[in-house]
Amino acid sequence: MNETALFKLSYGLYIISATHEGKDAGCVVNTLHQVTATPIQVSVAVNKNNFTQQIIEKSGMFNATVLTQDVSMDMIKRFGFQSSKDHDKFDGISYERDARGIPYVNEHVAALLSCNVVQKLDIGTHMLFIGEVVDAQILSDEEVMTYAYYHKVKNGTTPKNASSYQANSEKKGWRCSICGYIYEGETLPEDYICPVCGAPASVFEEI
Fold this sequence. Notes:
By secondary structure, this protein is mainly beta. Helix content is about 10%, strand content about 35%. It is globular.
């Protein structure tokens, strides 16, 4: 089976945020989809290992922002390759809060959806949440970023917790055990730093 066939599916890229008892959380996903029109409902799959998933379960609500093509890779790294359990991902960046107090990034995002969880389904590695949209806003007219654009133009990689993560066994080199970035080459420099997550050479695994 050629699993890269799944790369032909069309995805966007989003930041899912939640808050509970004063603790904010957020992560990057490509699994947000509208599933019904009346009422307006969306689905999103979030890895059970993500702290954001735990916060959504506890609070019963979340919001989603649609990322645009000019969002920085630093923003992707911030929300996609570190945990909200250990880092305040909203510290030092521009953000606002929706009517329920959930934070959201307000730059290089095209739209905001605020949702109440109405159903959830355990699907193994991920929890699938169905959210009823209680508020929606257009935040900019910038071009939205597709998952294909993220890979082809921004040379982005996929974190291990992502639904679409695939281990690539064909490339020869070294793989970052934190974010999955692959360095191609027989020898990894001792002072090498992962260009995606900033991890040192010591966390790379030979492949």
